[in-house]
Design a protein that fits this description.
homodimer; about 80 residues; mainly alpha; transmembrane (chains A, B); transmembrane helix (chains A, B)
């Protein structure tokens, strides 16, 4: 299989798996089971993967981790909006 | 920064972020909030990332996604052990 096709399929699958978490939080407006530290560690990690992808010039890595950054930043924003309730 | 060091740091951070989920499930023996479909999608996705890493000969990708495969297979096993309770 072509490397880029493989990377894009892998990226779509791992990215898609995070969407239910975001939908659940948005619906339930409940973040008590989210760990702030872990969210910050994860955002740092996926941001570094984007940087790695840029250095290696690998589009599948940049796209899938870029998407992860967006999803996890959304979770972080939800965390601060909903933590009081 | 050296690309491999960057990839390894990124991999350690994203891998570490999954451990609390596994510990939580092992402690609480409760999998009702785990989605089987999403677990299967995620395991397929990270397995394809390992394959991508092997094709590109990139150790950080192989190691961090290989670790993800192990953690998520453990979650899958927990799912089948604890789903009845």
């Amino acid at each position: 299989m072509n490397e880029n096709v493989l990377g894009i399929v892998a990226g779509v699958l791992t990215s898609a798996s995070m969407i239910p978490q975001l939908i659940k939080i948005l619906k339930e407006k409940n973040v008590k089971d989210l760990s702030l530290v872990m969210l910050l560690v994860l955002i740092t990690g996926v941001s570094l993967w984007v940087w790695y992808g840029v250095m290696k010039d690998e589009l599948p890595i940049i796209l899938s981790n870029g998407f992860s950054v967006l999803v996890n930043l959304s979770l972080l924003i939800c965390y601060f909006i909903y933590r009081k309730s």
